[in-house]
């Protein structure tokens, strides 16, 4: 709605995980490098965790693009609320296994044959499980057992488990100690610091066609970072609504009153104390916007 008004060619703060808008922060570069290295080196189990909205799904989208470009076969499970039977059915459909998809025995035999054939040709196969923190214990146990498929060159199936921080907590439980020992690589995503948040916002605007943007000032970016706690998904939601509000008011810049309205509507909770000194003019506007008449 506001794209033409500000000069964007597309929405810079779309909530979908589009790799074209990937801001390659140091932690995201490191996480993606670990995922690629784990697959290429046939490490077996790789764990990707992080707070809600920190970019895990975007990392998986980038990984899927890499796998497709390298013609590496992969299965990608996005719904983790599965029974054991449903897990094997979805796995067989995703890998296009030629067997009875409703028979666990046939799926396992067909999967093993496919993995052996690909391994003999020097190729590997990948299983990606998103939202893995929701997996039931019996499904996780089946996934662990799939990790036992190997030859002298390494694991036949590279398994990536991605999920919220609760997944780390699950791994500490006594029932999961065998799986925990098999995790070869761990990647953790956190919220941006203020400089990363600024680079992230400016990068997305530049990708959408507006370089050297002056729509959201550095002071506003610091406040957005504070209220979002550096979580990329929240930054996107705040900025999208902020630009929409500015467009509705026919303003080509944003201010604190607009931000107060947006974050109030979003019901955001954030610390009252700020880790930075607010600029004098900005502080005056903040006082006026929060003063009770």
What does this structure look like?
- With 293 residues, the protein is α/β, with parallel strands linked by helices.
- The protein is built from 13 helices and seven strands.
- It has a five-stranded parallel sheet with strand order 2-3-6-1-7, with helices on both faces. Strands 4-5 form a two-stranded antiparallel ribbon.
- β4 and β5 form a beta hairpin.
- α2 crosses α3, α4 runs parallel beside α5 and α11 crosses α12.
- The protein starts with a helix and ends with a helix.
- The C terminus is likely disordered.
SSE blueprint:
Blueprint: H1 3-6, H2 26-40, E1 45-50, H3 56-69, E2 73-77, H4 84-94, H5 104-120, E3 125-129, H6 137-146, E4 150-151, E5 154-155, E6 157-163, H7 166-171, H8 177-182, E7 183-189, H9 194-207, H10 218-228, H11 232-248, H12 256-265, H13 280-290
Parallel strand pairs: 1-6, 1-7, 2-3, 3-6
Antiparallel strand pairs: 4-5
Helix pairs in contact: 2-3, 4-5, 9-10, 11-12
Describe this protein with a few key phrases:
alpha/beta; about 50% helix; 13 helices; 5-stranded parallel beta sheet; about 290 residues; two-stranded antiparallel sheet; single chain
The gist of it:
The protein is α/β, with parallel strands linked by helices. The chain contains 13 helices and seven strands.
Q: Give the class from helix and strand content and strand pairing.
A: alpha/beta
Residue share in helices? 40-55%
The neighbouring-strand order within the major sheet is: 2-3-6-1-7
Biggest sheet record: 5 strands, parallel
Average pLDDT for all residues: 90
Task: Please tally the helical runs, counting DSSP H or I stretches of 4 or more residues.
Answer: 13
For the record, give the distance between the C-alpha atoms at the N and C termini, rounded to a whole number: 34 Å
The number of E-state strands comes to 7
Beta-strand content bin: 5-15%
| Element-level helix/strand string | HHEHEHHEHEEEHHEHHHHH
Q: Give the low-pLDDT segments.
A: 286-293
CA radius of gyration: 23 Å
Shape descriptor reads elongated
């Amino acid at each position: 709605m506001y794209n033409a008004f500000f000069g964007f060619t597309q929405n810079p703060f779309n909530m979908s995980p589009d790799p074209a808008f990937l801001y390659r922060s140091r932690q995201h570069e490191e996480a993606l490098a670990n995922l690629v290295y784990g697959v290429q080196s046939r490490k077996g189990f790789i764990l990707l965790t992080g707070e809600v909205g920190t970019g895990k799904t975007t990392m998986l989208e980038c990984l899927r693009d890499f796998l497709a470009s390298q013609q590496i076969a992969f299965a990608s499970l996005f719904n983790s609320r599965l029974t054991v039977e449903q897990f094997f059915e979805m796995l067989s459909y995703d890998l296009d296994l030629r067997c009875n998809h409703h028979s666990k025995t046939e799926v396992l035999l067909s999967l093993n044959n496919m993995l052996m054939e690909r391994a003999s040709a020097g190729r590997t196969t990948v299983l990606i499980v998103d939202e893995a923190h929701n997996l039931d214990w019996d499904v996780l146990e089946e996934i662990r057992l799939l990790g036992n498929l190997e030859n002298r060159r390494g694991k036949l199936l590279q398994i990536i488990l991605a999920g919220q921080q609760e997944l780390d907590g699950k791994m500490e439980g006594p029932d999961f100690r065998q799986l925990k020992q098999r995790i070869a690589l761990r990647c953790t995503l956190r919220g941006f610091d203020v400089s990363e948040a600024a680079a992230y916002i400016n990068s997305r605007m530049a990708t959408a066609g507006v370089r050297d943007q002056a729509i959201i000032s550095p002071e506003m970016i610091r406040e957005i970072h504070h209220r979002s706690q550096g979580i990329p998904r929240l930054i996107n939601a705040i900025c999208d609504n902020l630009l929409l509000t500015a467009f509705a008011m026919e303003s080509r810049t944003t201010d604190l009153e607009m931000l107060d309205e947006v974050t109030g509507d979003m019901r955001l909770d954030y610390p009252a104390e700020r880790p930075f000194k607010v600029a004098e003019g900005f502080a005056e506007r903040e006082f006026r916007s929060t003063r009770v008449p």
